[in-house]
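Because showing beats explaining, we think one record worth quoting, sequence and backbone structure tokens together, and here it is:
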Amino acid sequence: MEQDMELHARLGEIMQRLNEAALARWGSAPQIIAVSKTVPAQRVNPVLAEGITRLGENRVQEILQKRPELDASFRIDLIGRLQNNKVKYIIDQVAMIQSLDRESLAQEIDRRAQQHGLVMPVLIQVNIGDEPQKGGVAVESLFDFARYAARLPGLRVKGLMAVMPDLRDQEALRPYFVRMRQLFDTLALEAIEGVSMEELSMGMSGDYELAAQEGATVVRIGSAIFGARDPVSRAE
């Protein structure tokens, strides 16, 4: 009961901050994806009663292990970097793949989805900080990659995702969020067949208010919901 009350309080504060950050400028607050990596299912399930229906997981193995213990009402998004040879294990286990970042992965998602009679919603991950250690399509390649992915019948491009540089200064971080929203809006104006700009997934536990201010439609929040645990990964 005490844990449920603490969870209710944390989520209430997060939702209030998101509303204050986004409503005046954008008309609505971003949707919350609860990042449940490393969190046992019994601690995850109570967020459903708080109105959270989407979960974000980073690792294929953890999705497969945890899925049977999670409430069936949850939809799970794969938000971590995905190896081509792991697609077959999760193609029918997740609602969306948010980390599409290369042609070979797009081909494998397309192939496996068609085998299962599915069309997999995907977000294109953008390497907005041009960081070699991170996944993501380079900004200058984004539009060509979107056109390529849109031609594959087994997937549908639904928007963009970004993992921001690990900067402590919020104002130094802001231009990256601004640039992502610009890319999102510009790609929408391209009106590419098979691409629908519905989701802009950016912002995590340490910067979700900034993301909301600059036009995120989805924020991925883990430690701020579930409490302190391992150091926050920039995939959250």
